[in-house]
Every structure is written in structure tokens, then in C-alpha cells.
């Protein structure tokens, strides 16, 4: 099958080198990486500008798109690795402050890894793309970059290659927010959530953590539906994901709790603080008692809370208070002993919904 590509004009020498690069991926011939790199370095010497860098990196994208379409993720990654390593050699050779802006290749490499579900590497590359953008782009324009739009879930930004994936994850958030609104009478809207959390400059680290965990949870939910997590390793992955989500809840509450000029910052104290601000009745004595229940019998306590059975002799918890109690159970030491417990994968979706409710309650109440 013949393929036609339209490449930017980089001059005769580099045009020939890119032709040889393309031929190599189709016919496994005619490409010498050392020659490609040396000619690229000369090109950068003569085209030392953002426009020159963009023209160079843009010539990788047609082949990259085809490789993605074919499912050749290894070679798709290899393309961007070649481009970045070449650019770094020029940076090192210059021995000065000026560097090639490598935001685009890091971004597209990150896209490649995320598409093949190598989430950790993909997010590392996306954040590296953002760091490149920070060094080379005015702060007023930074929020319009594809990397920033990705790591802050800004699906409204049209000029980003990965917008469909960002939109998919945003819809996942909206689905869970809808559950919170209908089942817990939550008043937080998606617009308010973006303003209070996603676009909050004081919570940028928490936002990064949240976006990564969204991808991870969504992946685990899919794998759970495929019955791939009914084993020891699956249980461990799920528990770790739940624990990380409760850590995010911890951080979101803590930011406001620190501003209260108090030194108590244990998760217990944070949940009591949130309960009070939300006019709930889940006080310290009840949470301590719930913790003892989890320690004595994690399975039964979790099952009772998930199914809204009464756990106290004299008081019935509200459903949002059950959510908080479940979050506390997973954040505390009792959860660390869980290994192969069927009730984790059997109830993973419900557990995630419960912790989402606490997270949304914290954003709605405290911000």
C-alpha cells in the first residue's frame, strides 16, 4: 500500500534525511541515524527559532499518525525519542542557556504512551512537555498549550491533539458528579467544579494528582468489568488506587484546614473539620468507633456501610456520612492488610462512587 505524506520544506539536505527516515519505517532501508542527527544539528544551527523547531518536529507527525493508526506504538514512541535525543544533543553542544523548545515532541510522545495505557510514563512526558512550555512560552499563553490543557482537563481548548481523550475523562467526572448531585443532593455544578478546583491556581498539584487518578481509576473500572482483577494483584492495585484517592481528599481538605491556624492535620481531624463545615453529625467519637470496626472486621464494616446498614446502636448515619466513614476506613491502617479480598473487586465501582462523593463535598463546602 502506498502512502502519501506532505512534509514541510526544511531545505534539500533535511528533506532528504526525512525521506530516508520514512523509507526506513516502510522498507527498513536507507536510514543512518548518525547522519540524520548530524544534519539535524546543522539545521538547528541555521534555524534557531521557535518557528524552526516547530517545522522540524512537525515533519515527524504524519508518520507518527500512521504508526498510531496501525497500532505500532513501539515505533511511534521511537520517532519522538529520536527527535528529542537529537534536540538534546544540540542543546548540550551549544553550552549556553538557549535550548530547543521540546514541548511538542514530549506532548506527542506522552499521547503515544497514554494510548497504549502506559499511564505513568505518559503523564511524566506530559508534565515534561508542560515544563518545556513554561520555559519558552509567556505565562499568559501557557494555559492555551495542549500540555496544560491536558493536565488540567481543559476540554474547552480546541487546539489540542488529545482533546477527545480529555473530553472522555471530563465526561467521566461529570457522570460521577451527577451521582453526587442526585444521590447526595449535592449542589456542586461542573462549572463550579472547574472554577473552584480545576482552575484554582493554589491547587495545581492536587489537580495534577486528580487527573492522573481519574485515568487510573477509569482503567481499573474497565479491567474490572472484563474480570481481569479477580486475583491478588488486582486487589492490591484497587486498594492502592482507593488509598491514593483518599490521599487526594486529604490534600484538598488540608489546604483549607491549614488556613484555620491549627496544627492537627491527621485525616481524622480533617474529616471532622469537613463534617462540621457541611453541618453533618459525624464527630470524633463516631469516627474512632468506625475505625475500631474496620480494624476488627474490615469486610463486614465495609459491607454494612456500602449497603447502608446501621452500624451504631443509637444513631443512623446519613449516606454522605457513610461515604466519609468508608474513606476513613481505606485511608487508615486497616486497609493496608487487604490482599486478595473478593469484596474489593466486587464493590470497586461503589467504593469509588462513595469517595467521589466525599471529594465533591469537600470542594463544594470548602471552596
Q: Low-confidence spans: pLDDT under 50, at least 5 residues?
A: none
The largest sheet is: none
Q: In percent, how helical is the residue content?
A: over 70%
Name the overall outline.
elongated
Count of domains: 2
Describe it.
There is one protein chain. The chain has 2 domains: 12-151, Serine Threonine Protein Phosphatase 5, Tetratricopeptide repeat (Alpha Horseshoe), CATH 1.25.40; 171-366, no CATH class. It is mainly alpha-helical. It has 19 helices and no strands.
Summary tags:
single chain, Serine Threonine Protein Phosphatase 5, Tetratricopeptide repeat, elongated, 2 domains, mainly alpha
What is the strand and helix layout of this fold?
Elements: H1 12-27, H2 33-46, H3 50-58, H4 61-70, H5 73-94, H6 103-115, H7 119-136, H8 139-142, H9 146-151, H10 163-183, H11 190-198, H12 204-225, H13 232-258, H14 267-277, H15 284-296, H16 298-306, H17 319-331, H18 342-346, H19 348-366
Helix pairs in contact: 1-2, 2-5, 4-5, 5-6, 6-7, 10-19, 12-13, 13-14, 13-17, 13-19, 14-17, 15-16, 16-17, 17-19
Amino acid at each position: 500500500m502506498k502512502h502519501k505524506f506532505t512534509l514541510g520544506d526544511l531545505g534539500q539536505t533535511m528533506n532528504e534525511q526525512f525521506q530516508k527516515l520514512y523509507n526506513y519505517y516502510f522498507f527498513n532501508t536507507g536510514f543512518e541515524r548518525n547522519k540524520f542527527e548530524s544534519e539535524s544539528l546543522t539545521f538547528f544551527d541555521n534555524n534557531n527559532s521557535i518557528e524552526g523547531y516547530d517545522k522540524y518536529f512537525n515533519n515527524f507527525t504524519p508518520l507518527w499518525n500512521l504508526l498510531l493508526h496501525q497500532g505500532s506504538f513501539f515505533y511511534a514512541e521511537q520517532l519522538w525519542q529520536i527527535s528529542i535525543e537529537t534536540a538534546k544533543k544540540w542543546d548540550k553542544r551549544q553550552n549556553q542557556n538557549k535550548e530547543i523548545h521540546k514541548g511538542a515532541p514530549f506532548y506527542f510522545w506522552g499521547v503515544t504512551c497514554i494510548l497504549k495505557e502506559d499511564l505513568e510514563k505518559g503523564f511524566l512526558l506530559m508534565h515534561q512537555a508542560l515544563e518545556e512550555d513554561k520555559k519558552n512560552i509567556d505565562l499568559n499563553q501557557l494555559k492555551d498549550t495542549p500540555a496544560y490543557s491536558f493536565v488540567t482537563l481543559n476540554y474547552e481548548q480546541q487546539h489540542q491533539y488529545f482533546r477527545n481523550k480529555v473530553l472522555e475523562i471530563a465526561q467521566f467526572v461529570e457522570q460521577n458528579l451527577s451521582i453526587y448531585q442526585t444521590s447526595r443532593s449535592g449542589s456542586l455544578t461542573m462549572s463550579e467544579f472547574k472554577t473552584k478546583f480545576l482552575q484554582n491556581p493554589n491547587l495545581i498539584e492536587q489537580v495534577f494528582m486528580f487527573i492522573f487518578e481519574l485515568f487510573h481509576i477509569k482503567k481499573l473500572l474497565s479491567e474490572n468489568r472484563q474480570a481481569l482483577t479477580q486475583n491478588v494483584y488486582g486487589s492490591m492495585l484497587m486498594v492502592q488506587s482507593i488509598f491514593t484517592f483518599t490521599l487526594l481528599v486529604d490534600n484538598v481538605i488540608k489546604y483549607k484546614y491549614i488556613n484555620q491556624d491549627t496544627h492537627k492535620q491527621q485525616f481524622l481531624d480533617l474529616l471532622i473539620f469537613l463534617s462540621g463545615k457541611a453541618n453533618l453529625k459525624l464527630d470524633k467519637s463516631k469516627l474512632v468507633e468506625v475505625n475500631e470496626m474496620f480494624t476488627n472486621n474490615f469486610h463486614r464494616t465495609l459491607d454494612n456501610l456500602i449497603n447502608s446498614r446501621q452500624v451504631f446502636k443509637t444513631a443512623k448515619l446519613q449516606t454522605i456520612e457513610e461515604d466519609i466513614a468508608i474513606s476513613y476506613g481505606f485511608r487508615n491502617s486497616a486497609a493496608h492488610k487487604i490482599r486478595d479480598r473478593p469484596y474489593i473487586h466486587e464493590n470497586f465501582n461503589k467504593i469509588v462512587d462513595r469517595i467521589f462523593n466525599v471529594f465533591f463535598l469537600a470542594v463544594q463546602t470548602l471552596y
